[in-house]
Amino acid sequence: MIKLTRRTAALAAMAIALPLGAAAQDYPSKDLTHIMPWSAGGGTDTVMRTFMNFAEQTLGVGINTQNITGAQSGIGTLRLMKARPDGYTIGSLTWDSVITVPYYDLVPGYDTAELEYLGSVTVHPTVIAVNADSPYQTLEDFVAAAKEAPGELSISNVGSGGVWHLPALDLADATGIEVNHVPYPDGSGPQREALLSGETDAASLSASAVYAAVQSGQARVLAVMGTERSEFLPDVPTMQELGYDVVWGSFRLIAAPKGIDPAQKEVLEAAFAEVFELPEFQARAEETAMGAVYMNGADTTAYVEASQKKAFALIDNLVEQGILEK
């Protein structure tokens, strides 16, 4: 079931009902460009392309996605920051876009203050998954094997110090194991393929990125890093149930370059909120376990600021311990 804030419908109705300026009355009059800072075929690319397909209906124009990868989403997000704030360029953001890249200064000239948040699309917990042919049926199996062969088993992520690496580090610390952390900085698509081909032993990633593989019998989820079981993976225990206080998750957001006309921003927010009211989108979100959660622009801004504060403090601590290097 889709998770929505209680004000979703009201916000959408209010935004549509409010009188718009001249700029908004004629907006949008042409297709939008959507910058996707991760590789084609990955979890984020798939989910956000799906969302944008529905947003084309509510906006009445096309939305053309461009994959601009590199630097753990930093290259594409910088392109978004530097785009003209004319309302015709928007972009998808992930945890790495607002946490990893700015913390590690991965891209010169990168400043999240140059973004205008338009809303959220997903918020979901991290999971630990293995290939369906893996001998590890449970997390306890994996932990036991890792303790017998320190440093030999691998857990993949999409970039060192990033959204899926930090949960894997926390998992290793909580369970007392030593594993090889393998980064796939081009996104969850290559990461998932490495898992399914047997290149890695396990993967730390989102439920949506591996859900199709689970449904087709190609992968198995060992644990969910949420405070409660996923409704899409009801038989999979949480880390807390297994005795480890490891809770992690991520998000997918939409933003525009700073300076976008307020009336245009209002139109985009209303259109994106309206997507969550479409029965077809609700059905698609349920079918793919994308973890759909709506927040408006203001709430998304506050959410990002709170996430940055919490994450930066945690990474600082890991750097002080020598687990990570800045």
Describe the 3D structure:
By secondary structure, this protein is an alpha/beta fold. It contains 12 helices and 11 strands. Strands 2, 3, 4, 5, 6, 7, 8, 9 and 10 form a 9-stranded mixed sheet that branches. A two-stranded parallel ribbon has the order 1-11. Helix 1 (8-17) packs across helix 10 (262-275) and helix 3 (43-59) packs across helix 10.
Provide the descriptors you would attach to this structure in a database record.
326 residues; alpha/beta; 9-stranded mixed sheet; two-stranded parallel ribbon; 12 helices; 11 strands; disordered N terminus
Chain-wise SSE layout:
Elements: E1 3-4, H1 8-17, H2 22-25, E2 32-36, H3 43-59, E3 63-67, H4 74-82, E4 89-94, H5 95-104, E5 115-131, H6 139-148, E6 154-157, H7 165-175, E7 180-183, H8 188-197, E8 202-206, H9 207-215, E9 219-224, E10 249-257, H10 262-275, H11 279-288, E11 293-294, H12 297-320
Helix pairs in contact: 1-10, 3-10
Question: Counting H and I runs of at least 4 residues, what is the number of helices?
Answer: 12
Strand portion? 15-25%
Derived from helix and strand composition plus strand pairing, the structural class reads alpha/beta
Mean pLDDT equals 90
Largest sheet: 9 strands, mixed
**Shape call:** globular
Question: Stretches where pLDDT falls below 50 for ≥5 residues?
Answer: 1-22
DSSP E strands, number = 11
Order of secondary-structure elements: EHHEHEHEHEHEHEHEHEEHHEH
